[in-house]
Amino acid sequence: MQRKLNLMLVLFSLIGGGVGFILGEVLLYQLSGEVPNAVLVGLYFGVLALCIGLGALIAELMSPRLNGASWRQRYAGASWKYIAPATLVLLFVVGLTLQFIYGLQLGGAKKVNDIVLVIDNSGSMNRTDPNNDRNEAAKRMIAQMDADKRVAIVEFNDQAAVLQPFIQVKDQAAKDSIYATLDAQKTTDGGTDIARALDEAMQHIKEQADSMRGTMVVLLSDGVSEMNLDAATSEYAAQHIAVNTIGLSLIEKAGSNLLQQIAERTGGQYYDVSEANQLSFVFQDIYEKIDNRTLITERTGPTADNTYYSILRVIAIVLIGAAIGLALGLMFDNRYLARSFAIGGAVAGLFAGLVLEAGLTGIIVLDSVVRLIADLLLAGIISVFTLVVPIKENYTLRDNTHRPSRSAGRGASEEFTEKPRDSRSHGF
Question: Which stretches does the entry tag as region Disordered (predicted)?
Fold first, then answer.
Protein backbone atom coordinates (compact mmCIF):
# COMPACT_ATOMS: atom_id res chain seq x y z
CA MET A 1 0.00 0.00 0.00
CA GLN A 2 1.38 3.38 -1.02
CA ARG A 3 0.43 7.03 -0.79
CA LYS A 4 0.69 8.33 -4.36
CA LEU A 5 -0.46 11.32 -6.33
CA ASN A 6 -1.17 11.76 -10.02
CA LEU A 7 -0.84 15.49 -10.63
CA MET A 8 -2.28 15.09 -14.12
CA LEU A 9 -5.35 13.41 -12.61
CA VAL A 10 -5.75 16.30 -10.17
CA LEU A 11 -5.55 18.82 -13.01
CA PHE A 12 -7.93 16.94 -15.30
CA SER A 13 -10.38 16.31 -12.45
CA LEU A 14 -10.50 20.04 -11.75
CA ILE A 15 -11.02 20.73 -15.45
CA GLY A 16 -13.80 18.14 -15.45
CA GLY A 17 -15.32 19.80 -12.39
CA GLY A 18 -15.26 23.15 -14.21
CA VAL A 19 -16.90 21.70 -17.31
CA GLY A 20 -19.47 19.93 -15.14
CA PHE A 21 -20.22 23.21 -13.40
CA ILE A 22 -20.88 24.98 -16.71
CA LEU A 23 -23.15 22.21 -17.97
CA GLY A 24 -24.89 22.08 -14.59
CA GLU A 25 -25.58 25.81 -14.63
CA VAL A 26 -27.11 25.50 -18.10
CA LEU A 27 -29.36 22.69 -16.83
CA LEU A 28 -30.24 24.68 -13.73
CA TYR A 29 -31.41 27.76 -15.59
CA GLN A 30 -32.97 25.96 -18.54
CA LEU A 31 -34.92 23.34 -16.59
CA SER A 32 -35.68 25.11 -13.30
CA GLY A 33 -39.45 25.15 -12.92
CA GLU A 34 -39.84 22.89 -15.97
CA VAL A 35 -38.94 19.57 -14.30
CA PRO A 36 -39.28 18.38 -10.67
CA ASN A 37 -36.51 19.57 -8.37
CA ALA A 38 -35.44 15.99 -7.63
CA VAL A 39 -34.86 15.30 -11.33
CA LEU A 40 -33.03 18.62 -11.79
CA VAL A 41 -30.64 18.02 -8.87
CA GLY A 42 -30.08 14.42 -9.98
CA LEU A 43 -29.09 15.61 -13.45
CA TYR A 44 -26.84 18.33 -11.99
CA PHE A 45 -24.76 15.92 -9.92
CA GLY A 46 -24.91 13.17 -12.54
CA VAL A 47 -23.35 15.48 -15.14
CA LEU A 48 -20.81 16.78 -12.62
CA ALA A 49 -19.74 13.23 -11.67
CA LEU A 50 -19.49 12.20 -15.33
CA CYS A 51 -17.24 15.17 -16.19
CA ILE A 52 -14.97 14.60 -13.18
CA GLY A 53 -14.82 10.89 -13.99
CA LEU A 54 -13.95 11.46 -17.63
CA GLY A 55 -11.22 13.90 -16.63
CA ALA A 56 -9.72 11.37 -14.20
CA LEU A 57 -10.04 8.58 -16.78
CA ILE A 58 -8.23 10.56 -19.48
CA ALA A 59 -5.44 11.44 -17.02
CA GLU A 60 -4.87 7.80 -16.01
CA LEU A 61 -4.90 6.72 -19.65
CA MET A 62 -2.18 9.26 -20.40
CA SER A 63 -0.20 8.74 -17.21
CA PRO A 64 -1.28 5.61 -15.27
CA ARG A 65 0.34 6.42 -11.93
CA LEU A 66 -2.41 5.26 -9.58
CA ASN A 67 -3.88 2.14 -11.17
CA GLY A 68 -0.89 0.93 -13.19
CA ALA A 69 -0.22 0.13 -16.82
CA SER A 70 -1.87 -3.27 -16.47
CA TRP A 71 -5.26 -1.62 -15.89
CA ARG A 72 -4.82 0.51 -18.98
CA GLN A 73 -4.04 -2.55 -21.09
CA ARG A 74 -6.81 -4.76 -19.75
CA TYR A 75 -9.77 -2.69 -18.66
CA ALA A 76 -9.52 0.89 -19.98
CA GLY A 77 -11.81 0.11 -22.90
CA ALA A 78 -14.56 -1.18 -20.65
CA SER A 79 -14.22 1.81 -18.31
CA TRP A 80 -14.51 4.21 -21.23
CA LYS A 81 -17.50 2.55 -22.87
CA TYR A 82 -19.61 1.31 -19.97
CA ILE A 83 -18.49 2.29 -16.49
CA ALA A 84 -17.89 6.02 -17.11
CA PRO A 85 -21.45 6.63 -18.38
CA ALA A 86 -22.70 4.58 -15.43
CA THR A 87 -21.38 7.28 -13.09
CA LEU A 88 -23.99 9.65 -14.51
CA VAL A 89 -26.76 7.15 -13.77
CA LEU A 90 -25.45 6.39 -10.27
CA LEU A 91 -25.15 10.03 -9.24
CA PHE A 92 -28.46 10.88 -10.91
CA VAL A 93 -30.17 8.31 -8.66
CA VAL A 94 -28.26 9.43 -5.54
CA GLY A 95 -28.91 13.13 -6.21
CA LEU A 96 -32.57 12.52 -7.01
CA THR A 97 -33.11 10.52 -3.81
CA LEU A 98 -31.37 13.00 -1.52
CA GLN A 99 -33.16 15.97 -3.11
CA PHE A 100 -36.49 14.18 -2.61
CA ILE A 101 -35.69 13.79 1.10
CA TYR A 102 -34.50 17.41 1.31
CA GLY A 103 -37.79 18.55 -0.24
CA LEU A 104 -39.90 16.92 2.47
CA GLN A 105 -41.42 19.05 5.21
CA LEU A 106 -39.23 18.38 8.27
CA GLY A 107 -38.50 19.96 11.63
CA GLY A 108 -41.94 21.53 12.03
CA ALA A 109 -41.85 23.24 8.63
CA LYS A 110 -45.15 23.48 6.78
CA LYS A 111 -45.82 23.72 3.08
CA VAL A 112 -46.93 27.27 2.23
CA ASN A 113 -50.53 27.04 1.07
CA ASP A 114 -51.84 30.38 2.41
CA ILE A 115 -50.63 33.71 1.00
CA VAL A 116 -51.55 37.13 2.37
CA LEU A 117 -50.99 40.14 0.10
CA VAL A 118 -50.57 43.33 2.15
CA ILE A 119 -50.77 46.22 -0.32
CA ASP A 120 -50.12 49.91 0.32
CA ASN A 121 -53.04 52.06 -0.84
CA SER A 122 -51.93 55.40 0.60
CA GLY A 123 -52.13 58.72 -1.25
CA SER A 124 -48.49 58.55 -2.36
CA MET A 125 -49.38 55.60 -4.58
CA ASN A 126 -50.96 58.09 -7.00
CA ARG A 127 -47.41 59.15 -7.83
CA THR A 128 -45.44 55.90 -7.55
CA ASP A 129 -48.06 53.65 -9.16
CA PRO A 130 -50.59 55.78 -11.09
CA ASN A 131 -51.66 52.85 -13.32
CA ASN A 132 -52.34 50.43 -10.45
CA ASP A 133 -49.63 48.03 -11.66
CA ARG A 134 -49.52 46.59 -8.14
CA ASN A 135 -53.00 45.14 -8.59
CA GLU A 136 -52.10 43.68 -11.97
CA ALA A 137 -49.01 42.09 -10.43
CA ALA A 138 -51.14 40.57 -7.67
CA LYS A 139 -53.60 39.21 -10.25
CA ARG A 140 -50.80 37.57 -12.23
CA MET A 141 -49.51 35.87 -9.09
CA ILE A 142 -52.99 34.60 -8.27
CA ALA A 143 -53.40 33.36 -11.86
CA GLN A 144 -50.50 30.91 -11.46
CA MET A 145 -51.52 29.63 -8.01
CA ASP A 146 -52.32 25.95 -7.61
CA ALA A 147 -55.84 24.90 -6.63
CA ASP A 148 -54.77 24.04 -3.06
CA LYS A 149 -53.63 27.62 -2.33
CA ARG A 150 -55.64 30.20 -0.38
CA VAL A 151 -55.14 33.94 -0.72
CA ALA A 152 -56.17 36.95 1.36
CA ILE A 153 -55.66 40.65 0.65
CA VAL A 154 -55.11 43.42 3.20
CA GLU A 155 -55.05 47.05 2.05
CA PHE A 156 -53.66 49.85 4.17
CA ASN A 157 -52.83 53.54 4.45
CA ASP A 158 -52.96 55.07 7.92
CA GLN A 159 -55.66 52.44 8.56
CA ALA A 160 -55.77 48.76 7.55
CA ALA A 161 -58.58 46.45 6.49
CA VAL A 162 -59.08 42.98 5.03
CA LEU A 163 -60.08 43.61 1.43
CA GLN A 164 -60.41 39.91 0.58
CA PRO A 165 -60.73 37.26 3.33
CA PHE A 166 -58.99 33.95 2.74
CA ILE A 167 -60.41 32.20 -0.30
CA GLN A 168 -59.24 29.00 -1.96
CA VAL A 169 -58.29 29.53 -5.59
CA LYS A 170 -59.82 26.18 -6.52
CA ASP A 171 -61.04 27.23 -9.96
CA GLN A 172 -61.20 30.11 -12.43
CA ALA A 173 -64.44 31.40 -10.92
CA ALA A 174 -62.71 31.91 -7.57
CA LYS A 175 -59.83 33.71 -9.26
CA ASP A 176 -62.19 35.95 -11.24
CA SER A 177 -63.90 36.91 -7.99
CA ILE A 178 -60.58 38.03 -6.51
CA TYR A 179 -59.72 39.94 -9.69
CA ALA A 180 -62.99 41.85 -9.43
CA THR A 181 -62.20 42.77 -5.83
CA LEU A 182 -58.79 44.12 -6.83
CA ASP A 183 -60.19 46.03 -9.81
CA ALA A 184 -62.65 47.77 -7.52
CA GLN A 185 -59.86 49.02 -5.26
CA LYS A 186 -59.21 52.76 -5.49
CA THR A 187 -56.21 54.70 -4.23
CA THR A 188 -57.12 56.70 -1.15
CA ASP A 189 -55.61 59.54 0.82
CA GLY A 190 -53.77 59.04 4.06
CA GLY A 191 -50.36 58.08 5.28
CA THR A 192 -48.53 54.76 5.63
CA ASP A 193 -48.92 52.64 8.77
CA ILE A 194 -47.03 49.40 8.16
CA ALA A 195 -47.32 48.23 11.76
CA ARG A 196 -51.11 48.46 11.63
CA ALA A 197 -51.11 46.54 8.33
CA LEU A 198 -49.01 43.72 9.79
CA ASP A 199 -51.23 43.57 12.89
CA GLU A 200 -54.36 43.32 10.73
CA ALA A 201 -52.82 40.59 8.58
CA MET A 202 -51.74 38.57 11.64
CA GLN A 203 -55.19 38.90 13.19
CA HIS A 204 -56.81 37.51 10.05
CA ILE A 205 -54.25 34.68 9.86
CA LYS A 206 -55.05 33.65 13.43
CA GLU A 207 -58.79 33.79 12.79
CA GLN A 208 -58.41 31.48 9.79
CA ALA A 209 -55.68 29.34 11.34
CA ASP A 210 -55.12 25.84 10.00
CA SER A 211 -52.37 23.88 11.76
CA MET A 212 -51.61 21.90 8.60
CA ARG A 213 -51.07 24.90 6.33
CA GLY A 214 -48.05 27.18 6.18
CA THR A 215 -48.48 30.91 5.55
CA MET A 216 -46.48 33.56 3.72
CA VAL A 217 -46.99 37.34 3.52
CA VAL A 218 -46.10 39.71 0.67
CA LEU A 219 -45.92 43.33 1.84
CA LEU A 220 -45.73 46.15 -0.73
CA SER A 221 -45.19 49.78 0.27
CA ASP A 222 -43.74 52.99 -1.11
CA GLY A 223 -43.25 54.74 2.21
CA VAL A 224 -41.91 54.54 5.74
CA SER A 225 -43.62 54.67 9.10
CA GLU A 226 -42.68 54.85 12.75
CA MET A 227 -43.11 51.44 14.37
CA ASN A 228 -41.89 49.05 17.04
CA LEU A 229 -40.12 46.54 14.85
CA ASP A 230 -39.88 43.84 17.54
CA ALA A 231 -43.57 44.05 18.38
CA ALA A 232 -44.61 44.01 14.73
CA THR A 233 -42.49 41.03 13.67
CA SER A 234 -42.09 38.82 16.76
CA GLU A 235 -45.28 36.81 16.21
CA TYR A 236 -44.46 36.27 12.54
CA ALA A 237 -41.01 34.99 13.47
CA ALA A 238 -42.43 32.75 16.22
CA GLN A 239 -44.92 31.16 13.83
CA HIS A 240 -42.37 30.86 11.00
CA ILE A 241 -44.39 33.12 8.71
CA ALA A 242 -42.05 34.80 6.23
CA VAL A 243 -42.84 38.38 5.26
CA ASN A 244 -41.42 39.16 1.81
CA THR A 245 -41.23 42.93 1.41
CA ILE A 246 -41.23 45.10 -1.73
CA GLY A 247 -40.12 48.71 -1.68
CA LEU A 248 -41.54 50.69 -4.61
CA SER A 249 -39.66 53.80 -5.79
CA LEU A 250 -38.31 54.42 -2.31
CA ILE A 251 -36.25 57.59 -2.10
CA GLU A 252 -35.89 57.70 1.67
CA LYS A 253 -33.23 55.29 2.91
CA ALA A 254 -35.22 54.75 6.09
CA GLY A 255 -38.05 53.19 4.09
CA SER A 256 -35.91 50.56 2.42
CA ASN A 257 -34.05 49.85 5.67
CA LEU A 258 -37.34 49.25 7.48
CA LEU A 259 -38.66 46.85 4.85
CA GLN A 260 -35.32 45.05 4.77
CA GLN A 261 -35.37 44.52 8.52
CA ILE A 262 -38.94 43.20 8.42
CA ALA A 263 -37.92 40.63 5.81
CA GLU A 264 -34.74 39.63 7.65
CA ARG A 265 -36.46 39.16 11.01
CA THR A 266 -39.17 36.93 9.56
CA GLY A 267 -37.11 34.86 7.12
CA GLY A 268 -38.42 36.67 4.05
CA GLN A 269 -36.66 38.52 1.26
CA TYR A 270 -36.57 42.21 0.39
CA TYR A 271 -37.02 43.49 -3.17
CA ASP A 272 -36.26 47.03 -4.30
CA VAL A 273 -38.32 48.13 -7.31
CA SER A 274 -37.74 51.43 -9.09
CA GLU A 275 -40.67 51.25 -11.55
CA ALA A 276 -44.17 49.97 -10.89
CA ASN A 277 -44.26 48.05 -14.18
CA GLN A 278 -41.56 45.75 -12.74
CA LEU A 279 -43.81 44.53 -9.94
CA SER A 280 -45.17 41.57 -11.90
CA PHE A 281 -41.68 40.08 -12.19
CA VAL A 282 -41.10 40.46 -8.47
CA PHE A 283 -44.43 38.90 -7.50
CA GLN A 284 -43.70 36.01 -9.87
CA ASP A 285 -40.24 35.51 -8.41
CA ILE A 286 -41.64 35.41 -4.88
CA TYR A 287 -44.26 32.84 -5.83
CA GLU A 288 -41.82 30.61 -7.70
CA LYS A 289 -39.60 30.43 -4.62
CA ILE A 290 -42.38 29.03 -2.43
CA ASP A 291 -41.18 25.55 -1.38
CA ASN A 292 -38.62 25.69 -4.20
CA ARG A 293 -35.99 24.23 -1.91
CA THR A 294 -33.03 22.48 -3.55
CA LEU A 295 -29.60 21.33 -2.42
CA ILE A 296 -27.88 23.74 -4.82
CA THR A 297 -29.96 26.92 -4.46
CA GLU A 298 -30.80 29.34 -1.68
CA ARG A 299 -33.31 28.17 0.92
CA THR A 300 -36.01 30.82 1.46
CA GLY A 301 -39.28 31.22 3.31
CA PRO A 302 -40.11 29.52 6.62
CA THR A 303 -37.21 27.08 6.28
CA ALA A 304 -34.57 29.71 5.51
CA ASP A 305 -32.98 29.47 8.96
CA ASN A 306 -34.22 25.99 9.83
CA THR A 307 -31.46 23.99 11.53
CA TYR A 308 -32.82 20.66 10.27
CA TYR A 309 -32.42 21.72 6.65
CA SER A 310 -28.98 23.22 7.27
CA ILE A 311 -27.73 19.91 8.66
CA LEU A 312 -29.60 17.89 6.04
CA ARG A 313 -28.04 19.84 3.16
CA VAL A 314 -24.51 19.23 4.47
CA ILE A 315 -25.18 15.52 5.09
CA ALA A 316 -26.65 15.15 1.59
CA ILE A 317 -23.61 16.75 -0.07
CA VAL A 318 -21.30 14.52 2.03
CA LEU A 319 -23.15 11.46 0.70
CA ILE A 320 -23.04 12.80 -2.85
CA GLY A 321 -19.29 13.42 -2.54
CA ALA A 322 -18.76 9.87 -1.25
CA ALA A 323 -20.85 8.53 -4.13
CA ILE A 324 -18.75 10.44 -6.69
CA GLY A 325 -15.57 9.01 -5.15
CA LEU A 326 -17.01 5.50 -5.13
CA ALA A 327 -18.04 5.86 -8.77
CA LEU A 328 -14.47 6.81 -9.70
CA GLY A 329 -13.18 3.72 -7.92
CA LEU A 330 -15.65 1.55 -9.82
CA MET A 331 -14.53 3.18 -13.06
CA PHE A 332 -10.96 2.05 -12.41
CA ASP A 333 -12.14 -1.34 -11.07
CA ASN A 334 -9.88 -0.90 -8.04
CA ARG A 335 -11.22 -1.39 -4.53
CA TYR A 336 -8.28 0.48 -3.00
CA LEU A 337 -8.91 3.53 -5.16
CA ALA A 338 -12.63 3.24 -4.45
CA ARG A 339 -11.97 3.37 -0.70
CA SER A 340 -9.57 6.31 -0.98
CA PHE A 341 -11.78 8.28 -3.38
CA ALA A 342 -14.96 7.57 -1.38
CA ILE A 343 -13.42 8.79 1.89
CA GLY A 344 -11.99 11.79 0.06
CA GLY A 345 -15.39 12.43 -1.51
CA ALA A 346 -17.05 12.46 1.92
CA VAL A 347 -14.48 14.99 3.21
CA ALA A 348 -14.90 17.05 0.03
CA GLY A 349 -18.69 16.86 0.44
CA LEU A 350 -18.40 18.21 3.97
CA PHE A 351 -16.49 21.29 2.80
CA ALA A 352 -18.70 21.73 -0.29
CA GLY A 353 -21.87 21.41 1.79
CA LEU A 354 -20.69 24.03 4.27
CA VAL A 355 -19.80 26.37 1.40
CA LEU A 356 -23.26 25.95 -0.14
CA GLU A 357 -25.05 26.36 3.17
CA ALA A 358 -23.13 29.49 4.13
CA GLY A 359 -22.68 31.07 0.70
CA LEU A 360 -25.97 30.80 -1.20
CA THR A 361 -27.79 34.14 -1.04
CA GLY A 362 -30.27 34.21 -3.92
CA ILE A 363 -28.08 36.60 -5.93
CA ILE A 364 -27.65 34.82 -9.27
CA VAL A 365 -24.00 35.66 -10.00
CA LEU A 366 -22.80 35.09 -6.45
CA ASP A 367 -24.68 31.79 -6.17
CA SER A 368 -23.01 30.59 -9.37
CA VAL A 369 -19.60 31.40 -7.88
CA VAL A 370 -20.53 29.49 -4.70
CA ARG A 371 -21.57 26.43 -6.72
CA LEU A 372 -18.32 26.64 -8.73
CA ILE A 373 -16.27 26.60 -5.53
CA ALA A 374 -18.28 23.64 -4.20
CA ASP A 375 -17.88 21.68 -7.46
CA LEU A 376 -14.12 22.31 -7.60
CA LEU A 377 -13.78 21.24 -3.95
CA LEU A 378 -15.48 17.96 -4.80
CA ALA A 379 -13.23 17.39 -7.81
CA GLY A 380 -9.98 18.52 -6.19
CA ILE A 381 -10.13 16.91 -2.74
CA ILE A 382 -11.20 13.52 -4.14
CA SER A 383 -8.26 13.48 -6.57
CA VAL A 384 -5.60 14.29 -3.94
CA PHE A 385 -6.89 11.99 -1.22
CA THR A 386 -4.65 9.14 -2.39
CA LEU A 387 -1.97 10.99 -0.42
CA VAL A 388 -4.03 10.47 2.74
CA VAL A 389 -5.55 6.99 2.26
CA PRO A 390 -2.93 4.65 0.72
CA ILE A 391 -3.70 2.60 -2.38
CA LYS A 392 -2.18 -0.13 -4.53
CA GLU A 393 -2.65 -1.51 -7.99
CA ASN A 394 -5.21 -4.23 -8.39
CA TYR A 395 -3.56 -5.92 -11.37
CA THR A 396 0.00 -7.05 -12.11
CA LEU A 397 0.85 -8.44 -15.54
CA ARG A 398 2.98 -11.58 -15.59
CA ASP A 399 5.71 -11.77 -18.18
CA ASN A 400 5.32 -15.19 -19.84
CA THR A 401 7.44 -14.41 -22.91
CA HIS A 402 10.73 -15.91 -21.76
CA ARG A 403 9.53 -18.42 -19.20
CA PRO A 404 11.58 -21.65 -19.59
CA SER A 405 9.95 -25.00 -20.21
CA ARG A 406 8.78 -26.67 -17.06
CA SER A 407 10.72 -29.79 -17.99
CA ALA A 408 13.93 -28.04 -19.00
CA GLY A 409 16.72 -28.34 -16.43
CA ARG A 410 14.45 -29.45 -13.59
CA GLY A 411 13.73 -32.75 -12.03
CA ALA A 412 10.43 -34.21 -11.07
CA SER A 413 10.92 -33.16 -7.49
CA GLU A 414 11.48 -29.53 -8.53
CA GLU A 415 8.36 -29.66 -10.61
CA PHE A 416 6.39 -31.18 -7.78
CA THR A 417 7.50 -28.57 -5.29
CA GLU A 418 6.88 -25.62 -7.59
CA LYS A 419 5.03 -22.85 -5.78
CA PRO A 420 1.34 -22.83 -6.63
CA ARG A 421 0.16 -19.83 -8.59
CA ASP A 422 -1.84 -17.28 -6.59
CA SER A 423 -5.43 -17.70 -7.78
CA ARG A 424 -7.02 -15.22 -5.46
CA SER A 425 -9.41 -12.68 -6.97
CA HIS A 426 -7.74 -9.39 -7.78
CA GLY A 427 -10.84 -7.41 -8.69
CA PHE A 428 -13.87 -6.29 -6.80
Answer: 400-428
